[in-house]
Amino acid sequence: MRISALSIDGFGLFGGRFECDFPDGIALVVGDNESGKSTIVSAIGAILFGFGTESEKALFAPVLGVGPRSGSLEVVSQGKCYRFSRDFGTNRTKVELLENNGNVLFDGVARQAGRSDEKERYNRILNMVFGIESRDLFYSSIFVEQGKLPAKMDTVVRRIVSGSSSADYAVVLKNLRESCEDLTISVPWGRSASRKPRQIELLDQEIRSKRILLEESHSASTSLRELRGRLYSLEQKLKQVEQTITEKTTWEKNLEAFRAALERKTHTEENLRRCRKTKDEIERLQGQKEKLDSEIRAGYAEYLDLPETAEKDLFDLSLLDRSIVELQQRRRQCIQIRPAFRPARFAPATVAAGCLLAAFGILFFEGRAAVVAVVFGLAAATVPFLFAAVTLYLKRSAHQVKLNEIDDQLRRLMQQQEEQRKLYPALPTGDIGEILDRLRSLRRLVSEREKREEALKQHPPNEDVEAEYDRLSNDLITLNHEIKRLQEEYPRLADIERDAGIGSFLDKARTERKKAEVSLQDLMRERDDARYQLAALETREAMSEEALEEEIVESEARLARLKLHRSAYLQAVEVLEEVISEFRSSHLARIQEKAAEYLTTITGKECQVCLDEGLKPLYLEREEQRLVPEQLSQGAQDQLGFTLRLSAIDEMCGNIRLPIILDDPFVNFDEKRLDAVQKMLEKLSSLHQIILLTHDKRYCAWRPPSLVLENNVDSQ
């Protein structure tokens, strides 16, 4: 079988239409990274099997595109040419046989997920052409990517040993075991001991219970009479306890209502006191304000129109008056102490000395000496009087100057006083000090009135306070009526204290009610137990011994059938496990034989391969040497793994030899190993089509490339 042609439109890096042909033997596809090599491999799988999810499909949306559009693949299998076409948007798939003018084998929707009649028909066609109907198995069989030449064989082994394309031995074996486990918990393959009993165990328990019922049927009559009497007594007790609970619940609700009413009354009284206090405070402030207004209007009417600066001006005027008075007093004092003629203290002595000198000159001197003595004597006697006269003149002059200064100051002050008085013509006559004191008293009264007004602003309007007071009064009356009604309806409430007493009574009522509820629950459980026992005894009484014996016989027959089914399931599991082991062994021998044949073809040396049940190589015999895989070179290990994959594919697909797609798996090989790979591929190409995708130009020396990809080819 081979892939002959591929055509895709809007897939991955190929934004437009891309077509290529693949020849027999080795088809070499060369291209740089991101040129579309892996896109070609993905397109082959997408055309045959579709996409699993929308997110997976979105990965291959072309540039500036929403999603991949369509693609077709032509393959040649068993001498016939087929074309597989798929619309990736709708998953519409078409399979044509390109012979005899064309023949449509399938035209419908074939999604990767889900099951339908169309999908089953499409899977049968895939199985006919490729021998494979699973996408995962297809890729694990024919596709080898970079660095993964030795393939894992788990999927291949499962596919081979199952022996069917639509079933899996593991699923069948699992279903058989689950069916057996539905019947019983006793199975040989081991299950948890804590599993719940199954049908066999439950039926066995039912049979034992019925045998016990049969043995107890004779003593049921006596127990019934005693149990009915006990049940009647329990019903009466339950009614009494329920009535007690109802009474205690009602009493508890009344206590709660009474306490709530008292609390609301206390709260209302407190609010009423605060409201009354606020009301009294407002009335007091308003009274004080009105009194101050009245006092201001009555005693200070003439001062109300004075400006703010009046007090300062009047204070200055009072200072002027005081200064005028002081100057007037100084003037009077100055007039009273006018200077008088006062000789000096030494004047008598001087006069006496002058007179003695003059007398001495007259008596004792003559002529000029006498005249001189008399003159000097008289001069000495008149000097004090001359000094006193000069001094008096000087003092009176200074006194007059001082008096004139006082008069000038007095005139200026009186002029200023007159000018100040002209500023306040309406000011009453009188002492300026008294006027100033009254003005200050007015300012103090105005300040007191403003304080009262500010205090009134801190309170709500008097109308609102009155309304709140009336509302609280009405609420208090209503609460008193409610409390009185409760006390009249339940006289016990009148004896309960208002504070701590009602709380203790309420706690006591709750405790008693809870005790009664606990007692009720106990009685109800006891009653339910009695009812259950009574129902069981009545059932036993109603059921005759013959009926019980018939049911026991039927249950035992059913139990025998279930045990027979269990034995059949156990035998089927055992046989299936033996068949699987035998089937696997026969496949294993053929795969070992084919692997040895492939390895001999590649290496040119006689080889034998030994595998375990999982197709894992145990050892390799070559030239009378037994080598384990770890003793082989990396190239030999790659060849061994590759031949195992080919052998498993041949075993799985029968006569269909699938192509092999290699996506640069030899990227890390040196020249020597590449030469060995070339020889291996040349030999294998006679049996399988090999599509080798690579970026390495060295492969072009092997043969001319069938396709050369450039970056961004057709991607716009």
UniProtKB/TrEMBL annotation:
Keywords: Coiled coil, Membrane, Transmembrane, Transmembrane helix. It comes from the Bacteria. InterPro entries: P-loop_NTPase, YhaN_AAA. Residues 1-138 form the YhaN AAA domain. This is YhaN AAA domain-containing protein. The chain crosses the membrane at residues 346-365, 371-394. The keyword Lyase does not apply. The keyword Transmembrane helix applies. Residues 275-302, 396-423, 462-565 form a coiled coil. Gene3D superfamilies: P-loop containing nucleotide triphosphate hydrolases. The lineage of its organism: Bacteria, Pseudomonadati, Candidatus Hydrogenedentota, Candidatus Abyssobacteria.
